[in-house]
Description:
It is a single chain. This protein is 25% helix and 32% strand. It has 151 residues and is α+β, with helices and mostly antiparallel strands. The chain has one domain: Ribbon (Umud Fragment, subunit A), CATH 2.10.109. Strands 1, 2, 3, 4, 5, 6, 7 and 8 form an eight-stranded antiparallel β-sheet that branches. It is globular and about 40 Å long. The two termini are 27 Å apart.
Amino acid sequence: MDKRLVENEVLLPKVAEWIAAGHTVTLVVKGQSMNPFLRNARDRVTLAPFTSEALQPGVVVLARELGQERFVLHRIIRREGDRLTLQGDGNVKGTEQTTVDRVMGQVIEVIRGKRHFNTQGRTWRYYSCCWRLLRPMRRWLLALYRRVCGS
């Protein structure tokens, strides 16, 4: 497989076009903001088309922040009409705001080595729900995770 490094500003608008045309796209995760569920350069995510109704708390999306052109791959933590609040699993407090029309794709699968996790599957949804419920303790859990895993 031929691997190339392409800047997000070049690649992700093209990814949005492919998804809008009905295709799925698999990308290598870049960044630490989704630890412990998604790890930098280790995991891959498959992004797919979505319906507005599917964009509910717990779903991981690729979106542009409101008022900025920055792309984020974060979990929806709140929805109020078409306005979405996003937060990375590895973030203690910081959130981003976006709208449904700025979402580029929904994560439907996480690939870790040879293992594939369907994000609609029972296991992924269970762990995601637990992590969201543990949000008040996230600072300590992430500190322990970083100490044990070294990231």
